[in-house]
Design a protein that fits this description.
- This protein is mainly α.
- It folds into 3 domains: 95 residues, MazG-like (Helix Hairpins, Orthogonal Bundle), CATH 1.10.287.1080; 72 residues, MazG-like (Helix Hairpins), CATH 1.10.287.1080; 47 residues.
- Helices cover 73% and strands 0% of the residues.
- Helix 1 packs across helix 4, helix 8 packs across helix 10 and helix 9 runs antiparallel to helix 10.
- The radius of gyration is 25 Å and the shape is extended.
């Protein structure tokens, strides 16, 4: 048995002990449903640690996420639904069956790995559409990215980035027209169409729109809080300043970052 196998079994045993009579009261009360918020929280904390590029924090957060995975498995084990070996066996089998171009005997170069994965997924899960299976709990940006990923896998995709940019211009013109006509429902629809096209552009550039927005939010927060500090040091009150004055402080903040 490898050291990794041993450590995983040790973690499972620790969780089992927490759940056993005489164990931790909080852990003994938990169900698969009550643990969902913690599972989602730990997933987001892993993502944040990756964005912050902190290897030690990434390691820690991955450990917390692994604990949540093990906890779910132990709960299932108690009800004799499945165990960790079955979970690992299933994912190993899934990786192999969904990559026939790598692990199979008949390699078809005409079918991309992404297309193979999505088509096999649809077949194995008996789905009506290749677009099915995206969790509703994901953010709309991620859902949009995945919808376009899936449709692109079977050829529903622009051929060049210039076509995507032209589509952005088209959607922006339609939004401007909606604003001119003061048609609120149309404005909302056109903003949605424009956002979807922006997400598609990020896909073409191999950029996650979700992560791009997270980084932009962090940057805005950093710059605005620095703006507040500068105004405080100048012994001024932020809401007494005009927009032009605020923009001058904004420029100072941006220049100081260079």
């Amino acid at each position: 048995m490898s050291n990794t196998d041993q450590k995983l079994k040790e973690l499972i045993k620790l969780v089992e002990k927490l759940r056993a009579p005489g164990g931790c009261d909080w852990d003994r009360k938990q169900t698969p449903e009550t643990l969902i918020p913690y599972l989602l929280e730990e997933s987001h904390e892993v993502a944040e640690a990756i964005l912050d590029n902190e290897p030690s924090l990434i390691k820690e957060e991955l450990g917390d996420l692994l604990l949540n995975v093990v906890f779910q498995v132990v709960l299932a084990q108690e009800k004799k639904e499945f165990n960790m070996d079955e979970v690992i066996n299933d994912i190993n089998e899934k990786i192999i069956t969904r990559h026939p171009h790598i692990f199979g005997n008949n390699i078809n170069d005409k079918i991309s790995s992404k297309q193979t994965w999505e088509l096999n997924k649809k077949k194995q899960k008996n789905r009506d559409s290749i677009l099915d299976g995206i969790p509703n709990s994901l953010s709309p940006l991620i859902v949009s990215h995945r919808l376009q990923d899936k449709s692109a896998a079977v050829g529903f995709e622009w051929e060049s980035i210039n076509q995507v940019i032209s589509k952005i211009d088209e959607e922006l013109d339609e939004l401007k027209l909606g604003i001119i006509n003061k048609d609120q429902s149309n404005i909302e629809e056109e903003i949605g169409d424009l956002l979807i096209t922006i997400v598609n552009l990020s896909r073409f550039l191999n950029i996650s729109s979700e992560l791009a927005l997270k980084k932009a939010n962090k940057k805005f927060y950093r710059r605005f809080t620095n703006l507040e500090k500068l105004i405080f040091l100048d012994k001024k009150i932020i809401n007494d300043l005009s927009l032009n004055e605020l923009m001058e402080y904004w420029k100072r903040v941006k220049n100081e970052e260079k």
